[in-house]
Amino acid sequence: MHVKKYLLKGLHRLQKGPGYSYKELLVWYCNNTNTHGPKRIICEGPKKQALWLLLTLLFAGLVCWQWGVFVRTYLGWEVSVALSLGFKTMDFPAVTLCNASPFQYSKVKHLLRDLDELMEAVLDRIVDPEPGRANASRTLNLTIWNHTPLVLIDERDPRHPVVLDLLGSDNTINGSASGSPAPGRTCSAQECKVAMRLCSLNGTSCAFWNFTSATQAVTEWYVLQATNIFAQVPRQDLVAMGYSAQRMILACLFGTEPCSHRNFTAIFYPYYGNCYIFNWGMMEKALPSANPGSEFGLKLVLDIGQEDYVPFLASTAGARLLLHEQRTYPFIREEGIYARTGTETSIGVLVDKLQRMGEPYSPCTVNGSDVAVQNLYSDYNTTYSIQACLHSCFQDHMIHNCSCGHYLYPLPQGESYCNNQDFPDWAHCYLDLRMSVALRETCISMCKESCNDTQYKMTISMADWPSEASEDWILHVLSQERDQSPNITVSRSGIVKLNIYFQEFNYRTIEESAANNIVWLLSNLGGQFGFWMGGSVLCLIEFGEIIIDFLWITVIRLVAFLRSLRRRRARAPCDSPPPTVAELVEAHTNFGFQPDPASREGYPHGQPLPIPGTPPPNYDSLRLQPLDTIESDSEGDAI
Hints:
Number of helices: 20
Subcellular location: Apical cell membrane; Cytoplasmic vesicle membrane
Pfam family, one: ASC
Region (Disordered): 596-639
Number of strands: 20
Radius of gyration: 48 Å
Helix content: 25-40%
Membrane topology: Multi-pass membrane protein
Protein name: Epithelial sodium channel subunit beta
């Protein structure tokens, strides 16, 4: 009952409203507010009222403008970067090692025989531009060449450039002659531009990949054709063709503890073949570093086997290495460095830890779950990285546009790698995607940086190793340990010594923090309001109260207006005086008192008319008439 009583009172209060008019409410606010200015508008004379009204409106506008600036700055989500130094025992980084040559030439020679012969013919043609003297007695299998040839673009006449096949017409394919686009015309690589011709749609649509140097052109052409060949070889066969850890890693020492190739995890990286990771942390706990300094780091001796390099595929000799965090995939092609053969390379490491704020301050992700790109490297059970996202994005577009995936990147389930036999247009499609700026921008916009990242800054120094005085005995010992041979089986041009260590245990933490937080925003809003208007939070509450009252009065008046409008519409129009009772019952008059000959027609012949009844009284006195009319009638009767 009490609840119902209070509800009824509240409803009555809502219907009643504040009890003020607009003017009374405004005057009450100006008299009672704690904000400076409105009081003077009411209390002063007309001239000062106008002045104070103008000043109040001006300063209120300034306050609103300043508030807008501060709110826009706060919603910009700006960050400030803090750099701090720490000191502690740290986990040793994961170290990935690869050979510059992905395969041993002795094991892949049978796959590259036709390609190598074409490459030798191309080099002979570049060195000797006369097609009559170069490769006169060589028979080539031009199946690969006709699919993606190298050409010379003769632009000595800019208005009529001529495209010349680099091999010319002096080669035969299965005993038949291969025609040249411009018979009898020669052009050297120095006079013309070397380009790769990539065609699709049965040769109806072609594009030219131009190069400034013949060396770059033949290298890229050979890599593209080798990719086509290796894409058709099973992965386990490719692993067997690469360099094994037992042959590549000759010596290993971590601090004072000996190690061997068994302490490395093998992965297949298509660009560099077999790679080996030390301290990856997948199956075992990460190894800590006991102390900073070269004596407590990782010492390695590698044999890259340079004498068995693929001659046209690997033009760089050395070991490729990368330092990275545990449980992350090593993108050694993009982030790695080379170690030179015949030298000892010392790498001092400093650690930088990056901590980003995340949304909405920084477009980063914690684990990649909010990135709209399928991570193709998830099979390795590694953490998210932006390189994995970019490569996965490119492979996704490659599959969508070319119907096949590139050999260098992982494949989604159910897809195939590109090759000339099954996908003859893939090279042209791949070049379009590789040159597409829009694709790169799309992938960059879709991928995000990791919110927490660790970077290893390296200081690299090199010295000749082994020295001339110690070269003989060191090579003898290494040969005996690996091959059990009294003869030297390793060479100075094939061995690399690495020394990786922490320079110091100091690490830097680069951490983002919000440049403008809610405390900053409220203090600036209050400062501006107090400076220009002399107000506080209570003044804002007063202003909010009067706004609510204004709305309240407006709603009540609007409801009252709608109610009165509905009543006027429901009221029927009445232009004449209301009828008397006699007029209302006139339609029910008995026909017996109003004989009508015509009424007999409705009855059968000989049947008597109905018996008349008592007529209704004619109460004219019930007619509603104005008072003055009744008085005038009475006076007339008296006269």
